[in-house]
Every structure is written in structure tokens, then in C-alpha cells.
């Protein structure tokens, strides 16, 4: 593992640096910030000064403090959600591809039904029934995202499933779990890893849209997507405040994708 | 007569493992009008690289290092891209191995034919179409007026390959480079393409470079042959002289008629391993792809299942292994009737019947090491793990003649084709089977490598008394290893019996055609065959 890290290209190191920085900030949030997450400490949309490093938001809370806490909430939420959606989506996708026949039909049609609803409306429906809390938020977004992951992993696994080494494993009498774990998964990794990087970033944006409708992370909790929405009005007055959380999202996205690119290189055996 | 093409002291290098390695060393050749030069050798011999270099082209990751390539007075070695473009297609053209992959599937064949001459400004589309039909006629394509207006998938493999040859002719080049044009074809369709190649070189007076790994094929079309190995010239000579009296040992090895096996008789008293009775199968539920299959396989013997592609031989293997359940009939294996579905079969029965595939590339998981590939059946069937498994894996590797210390930790992608196929054999052996089904195991391999594999299989059979069901379309392989031959056509067995019975006349009509289509190491074979067929048509 250490050897692998030492061989990593510059781009991957930059990516790892970005992600590590974000994680450290998220973990040590209370030690870094000068104010409380929700306390109003200044005027509305003050510009940056020694007192407020990044200025204040639309309610007069310190933006730097909100950014740090927002990072903490957003990264944890996005990571857990994406991981969950990949676990469920790829597991079902592989089962559908390997089992085929009516198992495939059953799962695929069920997924089709979920996908038939516009995602936002589906999320609204679930969240307004069970109420918006962090666990329900994670569960809902993971469910919606897993449909996309399912589609991808099923298609990838179908391609691998027709290969003769899978047939050889079947003829040997291997069970479905072994085939999924040892024959299909290692070969399906490259596209899944690439998708992971993308999905991870989409989750921020989705939480932001939900926040806008009042069903995302509930105020006064901070999250980057929500902060863009809350402060969006400032743009019309030529104030840069909403660009800061937007920039943070972009920054982390780039970081994650630099690492993903490197993984992709490693797992696909490309050397250029 | 002047030489059309002269290559002098050509060196080509390829870039891999972080540095440049020579892949073609000091090759010189010349080619006159009306002459066909055969380049022969196993893969990695550099024959395709030389063929492409004749057009001034080096593949990605390769470079022409030194030497001279003179095409009708034009030096191609250091020519600019622009000059090369003028020459390629119009003076020299290339026919690739797989026509199916070289055609654009969404355009009609004749449109693709006309592309180059129209682009080079030689003629307009209407004229090109007319010429195309004429060339299709000369290459013996059926209904030449209509065939060009089909899409590539509507043509058979042999027809496509000839349409590809026609395409290469479209700008009336003086030289054509044929790169293994018949390797992917059945023996019966191979003849059509060879006849087309002869037509072009003899009647149209073109020169050609013919690249192949099959000496019997090149003997039919080439005037001179160059034998290559590892990028070096081994031997060069007139076709007849070279075949009659090869000077080098390597050429003699290539020439060796394959006869690996002493005759083994089959008697009724021997154990019946596999007994198939009245089996039929279907993919769609409507049409049967197999019908009335009866087959008996005895211990320690090899049955060869022969037929063209689409004759149902691989389907029969699927039925025997249970991947495609038979709709009726019975399969008795080692005295027990097997359930027709794979899922219902016992682990012990699965262990005793193993399979080896045509494409070793897809038959091995690219993410697994040799240790895991061979170790898994040991663990799965016998519960052998740890040091014991390690010893057993090494033992198996020695059996397939690979050095355990070098190979055990390699990924399957780090092996050559022949090595991969050996690993597949070791995987089958690990299960200690009574029957191995070999599905075209040598057809993706070079001749000498394939022979090595056949040797190994033969050797293993002598030691362990396993039985083989050998599926193939290559009759030379059959002659080399089979005890019994079963010939299939359109899902039915049309003839079966001991090898000497089947190979001796009188034959079934189809068997006759099949046997007659295998190229012999005789330069006159094709001419005689074509004459014979022409006279029977009249």
C-alpha cells in the first residue's frame, strides 16, 4: 500500500492532498472555528475582514465557521450515501446479470418503476412521509442513486458474464456469491470506480436542491449546497459570498476525481 | 524486369518495457510484377510489421529505424505523410486478417469500395460502382450486380474477405499486401479466397506479399517464400525448392506433417465413459439446433467432433456440460444418467468432466494469478489449501511444462497465448477429470505452439488414461490426434466411425468436400482442385 502511494503520479497526490485537507478540517472543525455554527455574530453579507475571514452570510453568521461545519456535514453525508448506493446498486446489478431470467426481470422492472418518477419528486414523496432527518436523507438519496448504479453495474456485469472464465466457474459448480465476488467484481471495478467519483459530487447538488425545498439538511445545520442556495440572492448585489461554498464543492470534486482517475489507471492496467 | 518493391536492410524497433527493442532485423526483399512473395512465421516473427513497412507505415509504438523501402522508385523510408498518402491505396494496398472488423457495418459494401477511388479523384461514383461489379465478378462473388448493395453483415465470412480484396483493388494498385486473409475462415471458404488471390496475381498481373503462418496455404499462391523468426530471416527460396528441400531445421519443423499418435484400437470391451442417446436441443424453443445425436466415448480414447462453424459442434458441448439442457434423449456419464440441467448435477460429476476453450484470453480471468486459477479447483473439489495446495499447483505447472518459480505469481494477462492455454489445461487437470472437452483448443494458436499443446494433451492422456472430446474444424488436428471421428452438419451427425474408416473412401459427400478442402503441402494442389471443381460444374 505504501509502495503504491509512493508510485502515485503528481495529479493523484494533489487529489489526495485536497481530500485529506477537507477531511482534517471536517474532523477538527470545533478546534478551528472562531464562532459557533449557528450564532449570529455580525451584519448581513459583510465582506471579509480580520474579524470574519470570509465575511458573513445572509443572517450575519460567520461564513468561515459555516464553511468548516458545512464541509463536515456534506462530506460525511455524501460519502455514506454514495457508498450505500454503490453497495446496494452493484450487488443487485451483479445478481441480475448472473442469475438472469426472472430474477433479472423482477429486479430490473422494480428499478424501472423507481426510475419512472422524477428523482426530486420521489425524494419529496418519501421525505414528506417519513420526515426529514439525516438517516432518512441518507437512505432516500442512496435508494435513488442506487438505481443508476444498478443500471451501470448490470450492464458491465452482463459483458463479463458471457466470458468463458465465468462459464468455466459455473461448470466447476461455483455458487453465485463466488462468481460475483471473484470473477465479476474485479473486472467491473474500473467503470464502477469512475462512476463513484461522479456520483459522490452529484449528491452535494441533490442535497442542495432538497435544502432549497426545505427537505434537505434542516437549518440551522450548515451544508455547502444549502449555503449556495441560501446566499444565492447576494449575486444580484455583486457580492461574492455564494461563490465560496460553490468553489468548495468544485475544489473537492476535482480532488476526488483526480484520485479516481489514478484508481482507474491502476485497475484497468493502462500505463499511459 | 524491374522490381516494383525493394526493401533493403530494414530494421524496425518496438517500444515496450520502457525502451526500444529491435523487432525486425536486417530484412531485404524484392518483388517483381506478377510475383507473389510469401512471408511465413509464427506470431511475433515480424511478418505483419514487414507487410506494413512495405507501405511506409509503422504501428503505434513502432518505428522504422534504418534501411530503405523503395516502391517504384519512390523512397518511403523517410517520406512525408503527404507523399505516403498519395502512394497508399493507389500503388500499394492492404488486406487485413479480419474483413468483418474492417468494414463499416452501417454502409453498403459497394459504397465502401468506391470511397477510395472517388477520394483519390480517379473516377466518379458511378464509374467506381461499375468497376466494383466487374471486380466482384472476377473474384467469383455470387450475383456480382447485387451483392455490393448489401450491408457487411449480410455477407458470409468468405464473401466479405473477397469483398475486402476487391476494395484493395479499387485504386488499381500494383502491389497488394495480404495479411493472413484466410486465417479466420473455415477450410471450405478458405478455398474461395485463395482462388480470388490467384485470379488477381496471375490474370491481373499484380504483385503481392502474402503473410500467413500456414505453410500449406502459402505454398498454393506464392512463387517465393521467406521464412521468418523473431524478426530475422531464417530461409528464403522458390516455393517448390523450399518445400522439397528445406535447409534450416526451423523450416523442417514447420513442414513436418503432423502425426503425433500411434494408432490405438477401439474395442467394445473398453469402458464407456460417455454415452449420448438420441439427444436434441434448441435455443429458441421452436427450431432444433441439434437432432438425433448418438455418440459413445470410451476410456483413454479421443473422439474428434468435426464440422464447419454453425454445424452445432459447440452446441453439443454445451448440452453435454448441461449449460444448454437437452429437450430429450439421455446423457450417461460413467454409468450414471446425468440430469440435463447443470444445476441439478452433483459436484462430483462436474469435477469429472472438465472443459478447455478456444480462446485462452477469455477463458482466464484477467485479474487472477496463475496460483489462484489452478488453486481454486483444488480447494473447491478437494479442500486442499495452504502449503499442500502450493505443492500441488507447482506439480501441475511442471506437468504442463511451465517453470513454477517463474509462472506461479504471474497474472494471466502476463502470459502468451500458448502459455495461457497450458494454464487452462492445468486448471482442468487440477480437478482430476475422466473426460476433458476441448473446444477448438488450438485454432487460436500458431502452428508450432498448437502442436506443443496437442503433444502435451497426448502425453497427458497416455499417462492418466483420460478421454477427450475434441471439437475442431481443422482436419489436420483430427488426423493427428483422433481415434474416432464424428462429422456434423447442420445439427446432425452425418457420419461417424474409427479414424481410418472415415478417412478412407468411400466418404459421405460432405466428408469428401471437407477432406478435399484441407490444403496439402503441394504447390499444385489448389490448381488441381479448382480444375477438378470447374470440370464437375460443366
Quick take:
The complex is a heterodimer of chains A (272) and B (538). In chain A, 74% of the residues lie in helices and 0% in strands.
Your description of this structure?
The complex is a heterodimer of chains A (272) and B (538). Chain A has eleven helices and no strands. Chain A is mainly alpha-helical and 272 residues long. Chain A is globular and about 70 Å long. The two termini of chain A are 21 Å apart. Chain B has 538 residues and is an alpha/beta fold. Chain B contains 23 helices and 20 strands. In chain B, strands 6-7-8-3-9-10 form a six-stranded mixed sheet, sandwiched between helices. Chain B is globular and about 70 Å long. The A-B interface holds A 163-165, 167-168, 170-174, 182-183, 186-187, 269 and B 321, 323, 342, 345, 347, 350-351, 353-355, 357, 359, 362-368, 376-377, 380-381, 413, 427, 431.
Features:
heterodimer; A: 272 residues; mainly alpha; 11 helices; B: 538 residues; alpha/beta; six-stranded mixed β-sheet; 23 helices; 20 strands; 39% helix
* Total DSSP E strands of chain B: 20
Give me the Rg of chain A, rounded: 22 Å
Class based on secondary structure composition and strand pairing of chain B: alpha/beta
Detail the poorly predicted runs of chain B. none
> What is the molecular shape of chain A?
globular
As a percent range, the share of strand residues of chain A is under 5%
Averaging pLDDT over every residue of chain A, what do you get?
Answer: 85
Average pLDDT over all residues of chain B: 83
First-residue to last-residue Cα separation of chain A: 21 Å
Low-confidence stretches of chain A at least 5 residues in length (pLDDT < 50)?
none
- The DSSP helix count of chain A reads 11
> Given the structure, what is the number of helices of chain B?
23
User: Major sheet of chain A: size, sense and barrel closure?
Assistant: none
The proportion of residues forming helix of chain A, as a percent range, comes to over 70%
Write down how many β-strands of chain A occur, each being a DSSP E stretch of 2 or more residues: 0
Helix and strand string of chain A, N-terminal first? HHHHHHHHHHH
